[in-house]
Structures are given as C-alpha cells and as structure tokens.
Amino acid sequence: MKDAFGLPQSLLVLGGTSEIALATARRLIARRTRTVRLAGRPTPALESAAADLRALGADVRTVAFDALDTESHESVLGKVFAGGDIDLVLLAFGVLGDQASDERDPVAAVRVAQTNYTGAVSAGLIAARALQTQGHGSLVVLSSVAAERARRANFIYGSSKAGLDTFAQGLGDALHGTGVHVMVVRPGFVRTRMTAGLAEAPLATTPEEVAAAVELGLRRRSETVWVPGVLRVVMSGLRHLPRGLFRRLPV
C-alpha cells in the first residue's frame, strides 16, 4: 500500500530500460519503494538496470514484456499482479522513430504508432483493470508535449503520443472514484539516449527532473504533470496559434 504521502511500496515499470522510468525508480526507492518489477524485452540492458536498482536495496525482478506482442499482455501482466499488489504502474515504453525515414517507410511508421499507442492501450487497460480489482493504485503514463500539436518535424511520433494522451485522460475519467489514480506526464525535450544527436529544444530537461515531477505529482494526486511546469503556458499559446503562423515557427 502507499504511504501517507501517496508514494508506492511496489512498482511495476512497463519499459524497464527507460531512462526516465529508471530515474523515477531510483527516486522512489530512496523514499519508500521496496519491490520493483522491470518489464521489457530480455536484454543485457534490462538485467543491468535491475542490478543497479538491487544495489539500492530494492527487491527487483525482470519480466519479459514486448509492447508489440499485445496478445501476450494479459498473461504477462496477470502473472505480475498475481504475485502481490502493485501500488504504481509506470507506463514508460515508447520509440521516437526517424521522421524523415519513416515518412518514406509506412511499415516503420506503423511500428512507431503500434508501440507508442496500440501497445500502450493494451497494457494500460489490463493494468488499470488489475489496479481496480485490488482496489487501489496509480497508473502513470509518460506522454509528451509533442501530443499537444502536430509539428512538421515529428508528426508521426507526435500523433502516436496524442492518441496515448487522449486515451490516458479518458481512462482516468473512467476510473474516477474507483480508488485508482491515473496521471499523465508531459515532458518536453528530455536529454536521453533516445534524443542523443538531436538539436536540443528550449526548456530541455533531464530524466531526474522528470522523476522529481512524477514524485510530486503522486504526492498531490495530480492528473496532469508538465515538465518543466512552464511548458503548460508555452504549449497553451502554441496550441492556439493560427496554423499558417505555426508553420513558420522553427519547430
């Protein structure tokens, strides 16, 4: 069960090698979390991440999970929840893709959409039902400011995040009053392996800063978290710009 501050004792990470998710796990272990399940494709990176968290004092196990293999999600996640209550599910998997290349390769573009949206819908619904059955818990969904408005530079990724964001908001409304809390996290540009080599956007942040915002959001039982917070104002302005003017911006 969560403590008096809303922080979890047990954590399931979907996307177990995500730098944001691992920064969040480290922060929560330092506070309260003692049980962590890292779900992801079986790789040396996943095992290394688990070992690093174990060194912090948590009971950590890895779970073989593939976002694209939606037919396996029911079984895989069912086994995790059968092992004991989960206080927090962090849905953190996703791919950025290569916009220029993916525009010319519909199969690759669809893979981005299936990973970021279809896989998340499947895993999100299954996790939400399990949390509802146990009567408590939080589902934290890593979205992006890219979900707020389509940009020429990354509209394939942005459209997948827009779908995910809308889904998570609706899921939160559907679960309101059930004891299950859904929180959508919208970071801006985060300095990670996924964004390495890309031109850094204004108001860039780090996995550790996102993790701090997630912790604060959990304490407050927030429904939406922007990282950094000023992006809420910035994106509100950009969202309402006339389309012709928006096209001229270097975004």
UniProtKB/TrEMBL annotation:
<dbReference type="InterPro" id="IPR020904">
    <property type="entry name" value="Sc_DH/Rdtase_CS"/>
</dbReference>
<dbReference type="InterPro" id="IPR036291">
    <property type="entry name" value="NAD(P)-bd_dom_sf"/>
</dbReference>
<keyword id="KW-0560">Oxidoreductase</keyword>
<protein>
    <submittedName>
        <fullName>Decaprenylphospho-beta-D-erythro-pentofuranosid-2-ulose 2-reductase</fullName>
        <ecNumber>1.1.1.333</ecNumber>
    </submittedName>
</protein>
<dbReference type="GO" id="GO:0016491">
    <property type="term" value="F:oxidoreductase activity"/>
</dbReference>
<dbReference type="Pfam" id="PF00106">
    <property type="entry name" value="adh_short"/>
</dbReference>
<comment type="similarity">
    <text>Belongs to the short-chain dehydrogenases/reductases (SDR) family.</text>
</comment>
<dbReference type="InterPro" id="IPR002347">
    <property type="entry name" value="SDR_fam"/>
</dbReference>
